[in-house]
Amino acid sequence: MKRFRLKYVLYTGMILALAVSSCSKDIALGTDPYAGGKGSLGIGFYNNYASQESAKPGELVDFYVKGIKPYLDDIEFSINETKVEVISAKDSLVTIRIPEEISSGEAKIIVDGQVFYGPRLEIESNMTLDENYGVVNGFVGAISDMLPNSGGYIVVGSFFNFENEAVLNVDESKKVYRNGIHFINAEGKTGSGMSFGRGAESGGFINSVTKMTDGKFMIGGGFGTFQKRGAYNIARLNANGSMDTTIVDVINTTDNPKNSRDTVSAFNGGVVTYPLLKVFGVSENRVIAVGNFKEYYKIDYTYSSRDNRKFVVTKAKNVIRMLPDGSLDSTYAMENLGANGSVLDATMIDNERVVVIGAFTSYNGKPAPGIVCLKSDGSVDPSFNISGHVERIFSVTYNAEQKKLAISGIFNALGGHANGVAIINTDGTVDKQFVFGDIGLEVANFAQVLNNGRVIVKGTFKTYDGIPRGSLVLLEKDGSLLQKYNGQAPFAGTITKVLETKSSLGETSFVNRGRHLPIW
Q1: Contact assessment for residue 167 and residue 175, using Cβ atoms and an 8 Å cutoff
Q2: Using DSSP, how many helices (H) and how many strands (E) does the chain show?
Q3: Which one of 131, 236, 255, 479 counts the least CB within 10 Å of its CB?
Q4: The whole model's pTM is what?
């Protein structure tokens, strides 16, 4: 069975210069600071693998260890910092029993206070990596969002390559770009039918992608151009991935008659200075945009040339709705004061309501403990009222099938109940059935309810309810952790979104940042 492991090694060079001077021939030497230290016991694992690569709870596993004979009665053995039962210890063979609650990890023996590390043992579980999925090298850079489309996925982020396919040091006609947006098929390979050209160049990035009611796509993020045309952190794309453009008349400041017209983005509107965090397509082909912006920008082409644009600027904060041509929808979020702090994330729930989270205590002048729900007209929904002590909310996700929100962060007694991770109903009440377990002083920075009601959580934690785990856990509806879904460890990186799909074997699975994890 193949194993996928990534190791990151940081080498730090250090040069230390010592200058010693003395005015005396007599040099007094101190005692040896290492005197009396224990010598090596000569213990070590013979092989970098156990008698088997993987095991289930309750099974016996053999490890071959040298130098263990004098200490057969003084062995402390663990896997991933979880103590295991030593069934027998012979001259060079140690047999252990896998406990009922454990995750994959390195073997370790402690004898007389000395630690000896051994091979990694995989703990078999019903959630595994789909080894037949096509992503190998993946994206160079971060993924922010993924949208199912035509049997594959539109992937957006701050990446600039995928599977080493980008080719730049050639003639323009032969260049291949992977800048901030790409389409992959269900097998994890570059798909056909969509091409994004140069994408978001010059350090631009895309945070969000959504499908509009007319079948086109809207992208939002931090980019000044897309496919070599001006854009103001938002653009509309055609079904084939090309930018939706139009031809406009402009002031011609030259003698060339061709400069009397210009091809520009058909979506005339956007924001500058602050990137958009999320975009949501809503009825009548309108789009809601969320971010930390304070103004909305629109170009008046009557007073613009090809080289200089005349902007019409309107005060608008945090959340706006725009019409199909990019104009600001004046009927949405009127007299919007926005958040008194920063917005970090948002999700759209039922009836075109938007739930916004961040580091703020009020929204539109009304108390909001880091979370607020906006109605379809942009006003604060007073019925969505959550109490509790909130220091910071990191993420918010929504499952339309379960009609449940999931938030993660640093908070306690949310709704009089939840700590660290909370499941919230669409009316703002906290689901008291779900109780997040003890993760010590660590934090959860992502949570999402799956279609079957289970909850996937990612964070900085290394234990869950006292048992060493990876920083990714799959929990039941009540917050309990079942061993059969949580043998994997560790899990490096971050999660921004989870999409449910089928694995290469037809099993229920989810996609995270281009990886398939089947659940059976």
Answers
A1: yes
A2: 0, 40
A3: 255
A4: 0.87
